TrEMBL record, chain A:
This is Cbb3-type cytochrome c oxidase subunit I. InterPro entries: Cyt_c_oxase-like_su1_dom, Cyt_c_oxase-like_su1_sf, Cyt_C_Oxase_1, Cyt_c_Oxase_su1_BS. The chain crosses the membrane at residues 47-67, 87-117, 129-151, 171-193, 213-238, 258-281, 293-317, 323-344, 365-385, 397-422, 434-456, 476-498. Keywords: Electron transport, Heme, Iron, Membrane, Metal-binding, Respiratory chain, Transmembrane, Transmembrane helix, Transport. Its main location: membrane. It comes from Gemmata palustris. It is found in: Membrane. Gene3D superfamilies: Cytochrome c oxidase-like, subunit I domain.
TrEMBL record, chain B:
The keyword rRNA-binding does not apply. It holds the Pfam family COX4_pro. It comes from Gemmata palustris. This is Cytochrome C oxidase subunit IV family protein. The chain crosses the membrane at residues 27-50, 56-74, 83-104. Keywords: Cell membrane, Membrane, Transmembrane, Transmembrane helix. It is found in: Cell membrane.
Length: 586, 115
């Protein structure tokens, strides 16, 4: 065997190593527009919802700005009475049906339910993308209706005005809401089946994150209540198009029947809006307090309690519509009943905060804002659930302030908290911490400035949906409009720094907040199938006291720990030491 | 509630043998004909009898029978396990909330509170 000897030339210059390819994740696995439009990946569908509802939020916000600007002057600044009617209706329709209802279930539910329970996807991936398309078709109908000509009935679409007298785009608007309702039903069904059937080994009902519990309760409402409003809207369309007397008293109908059927959906819809927000707050408060949630089972079951009791009190919207006194009495009592599970949540959140090792990042600031604003909104709800006071306060700005405290101060703030909390997981990038804190404070301050004056003017008798008002209300209206511009700035800032973070944000690891949920055990952004191997759950969802995630692995150092003297000795304050070793909790 | 049927082969995807125990097409056709017949009866009552005191309860009863037939035969309630049947009953209870509470309003609206 001969050995070939080769003469080497001069040493070659070292070749610089090629940069390692980025790990494959759901974002970079494919780049074509079709890969997004025909995706069945729950994470991409969540982002499709995020993009679409952001557009509807901007549209609804523009109409809100028109309404508030018009109210600067006692006789209306620039809108005619008819245009004013169309503006506040457009604001209501876009914000309620196309932003608030799909916001957290559509975006965060789609994206994080499978990640949180250790599943690869939702139970019905194709139904999931179908629900987005159905939602967009409905939004196209209603969007066209409110933008081209508008609807002047108010978002509640009460007949007989909506079925007989209104000359606006009632039919396409109602058709859009009707169609988008099917999206809501499909999303609810998908989430319910996923939670029932696709949990990872060890993920018992008692170990489900509270966000999952809240979305399960929300899905129950979506599944049961939405068909009722669908039928109601069909009846309204039939009456308007064919003149068959269902709700119009002049042709044998009953307008209060519409209100019963409409509110049988639309009051539970309030809980479709707020329950997911409560789930978000449960996740965020416990993470940034570095403490186990106080009363896990009470918080979980209070979600179900709110879902059930929420079906029993719809007629508190109709106390002065002409319903029976005895029915009003019953519904008043039932309305107060829902304060019990709501209060259970608030007290448990407060107890979670007690002696926690709190860091004030943006999600935490927003969740604390939620805690205050939702409590104020809930307590003022008791004013309206009381028969005597409701007669005075009904259809005044007090009502407007109350439901904005719950829906905007509650749901929108919680949605913002969710976006800030999970943005690093969704994108793999961290946004500006300083700007996010500033935006959070601006949002909360702007909100207070906008809606506290409305409580005062409402209590003094200013009716809602009127473009004109007595001179003495002008100062309060100016304050409210000024506050709305501050609030708008608060919403604008995340619209700037979040997209910028996609290009300039610091790359983050799997668990930037040192949180315990399964979603934080996957890379950021997650891989296409979420988990390389099916996770085995061995711990409860919030084991912050012993410092392990749901798979029993130790948590990384929490953010801000290096600045906090209480963390330097390895403790998390009063909650006890943070163990870094793996520990299995049964 | 559910009468036993001859179960087919059970698989992980079909734990109760529902899909395997194919429904008798003849039975399904008869049930479908019953549903159609009841619908025609409802229309006939509207046309022939008109709005009397008993028309609405009678028509609601016919509608309930139709819904029951659809649920029992076409929605596989007769082959459902206890959880499925419980779910169906829960949905009836939930619908009962709607009907009882707003009928409670309608039936007491004429009662005036004495001052």
């Amino acid at each position: 065997m001969s050995i070939a000897v080769t003469h080497r030339g001069p040493a070659a210059a070292p070749v610089p190593p090629e940069p390692a390819p980025a790990p494959v994740n759901y974002l970079n696995v494919s780049h074509t527009i079709w890969s997004w439009l025909f995706t069945v990946d729950h994470k991409r569908i969540g982002l499709l919802y995020l993009g679409s509802i952001s557009v509807f939020f901007v549209i609804g916000g523009i109409f809100a700005a028109l309404v508030r600007t018009n109210l600067l002057m006692p006789n209306g600044a620039f809108l005619s009475e008819d245009a004013y009617n169309r503006a506040f209706t457009a604001h209501g329709v876009m914000m309620l049906f196309f932003f608030l209802i799909p916001a957290v279930p559509g975006v965060m539910g789609n994206f994080f339910i499978p990640l949180m329970i250790g599943a690869k996807d939702l139970a019905f991936p194709k139904l999931n993308i179908a629900s987005w398309y159905v939602f967009m078709i409905g939004a196209t109908f209603s969007g066209w209706a409110v933008l081209v000509g508008g609807i002047d009935t108010g978002w509640t679409l009460y007949p007989p005005y909506s079925s007989r007298a209104s000359q606006s785009n009632v039919l396409p608007g109602v058709m859009g809401v009707f169609i988008s309702g099917f999206s809501s039903i499909m999303t609810g069904l998908n989430i319910m089946v996923t939670v029932h059937k696709m949990r990872a080994p060890g993920m018992t009902w008692g170990r489900l994150p509270l966000f999952v519990w809240s979305l399960y309760a929300t899905s129950l409402i979506q599944l049961l209540a939405t068909p009722v409003v669908a039928v109601t809207l069909v009846l309204l369309m039939v009456e308007r198009a064919a003149g068959i007397g269902i709700f119009d008293p002049s042709i044998g109908g009953d307008p209060i029947l519409f209100q019963h059927l409409f509110w049988f959906y639309s009051h539970p819809a309030v809980y479709i809006m707020i329950l997911p927000g409560m789930g978000v707050v449960s996740e965020v408060l416990t993470c940034f307090s570095r403490k186990n949630i106080f009363g896990y089972h009470a918080v979980a079951w209070s979600s179900m309690g709110i879902a059930v009791v929420g079906f029993l009190l719809w007629a508190h919207h109709m106390f002065v519509a002409g319903i029976s006194f005895y029915a009003a009495l019953l519904f008043s009592l039932l309305s107060m009943l829902v304060a019990v599970p709501s209060a259970i949540k608030v007290f448990n959140w407060t107890a979670t905060l007690y002696r926690g090792s709190i860091t004030f990042h943006a999600p935490m600031l927003l969740s604390l804002g939620f805690l205050v604003l939702f409590t104020v909104g809930g307590l003022t709800g008791l004013f309206l659930a009381t028969l005597g006071t409701d007669i005075h306060l009904h259809d005044t700005y007090f009502v407007v302030a109350h439901f904005h405290f719950v829906m905007v101060g509650g749901m929108v703030i919680a949605y913002m908290a969710a976006v800030h909390f999970w943005w690093p997981k969704m994108t793999g990038r961290m946004y500006s911490d300083w700007w996010s804190r500033v935006a959070s404070v601006i949002m909360i301050v702007g909100f207070f400035l906008t809606f506290v004056p409305q409580f005062i003017m409402g209590y003094h008798g200013m009716p809602r949906r009127y473009p004109n008002y007595p001179q003495e209300f002008q100062i309060l209206n100016v304050m409210s409009t000024a506050g709305s511009s501050v609030l708008g700035l608060g919403y604008l800032l995340p619209g700037i720094y979040l997209p910028l973070s996609l290009f300039f944000g610091k790359k983050v690891g799997a668990n930037p907040w040192s949180a315990t949920g399964l979603e934080w055990t996957t890379p950021s952004p997650p891989t296409v199938h979420n988990f390389e191997v099916t996770p085995i759950v061995v711990c409860g969802p919030y084991e912050y006291a012993i410092g392990v995630d749901q798979m029993g692995r130790g948590l990384p150092e929490p953010p801000g720990a290096q600045d906090d003297p209480s963390h330097r000795d390895g403790s998390t304050g009063p909650s006890g030491p943070m163990k870094k070793e793996t520990e299995v909790v049964g | 509630m559910s009468h036993p049927t001859t179960p087919g082969a059970t698989t992980p995807d079909d734990p109760h043998g529902i899909r395997a125990s194919a429904d008798n097409p003849g039975v399904l056709l008869v049930v479908f004909a019953c549903v159609l017949g009841l619908a025609l009866a409802n229309i006939g009552i509207s046309i022939q009898i008109g709005p009397t005191k008993f028309t609405l309860p009678l028509q609601l009863a016919i509608g309930s029978v139709q819904a029951g037939l659809v649920a029992y035969y076409f929605m596989h309630l007769r082959q459902g396990d206890k959880v499925v049947i419980l779910t169906a009953l829960s949905s009836l209870f939930w619908m009962g909330i709607l009907f009882v509470l707003f009928m409670g309003d309608y039936m007491t609206r004429h009662l005036v509170v004495s001052s």
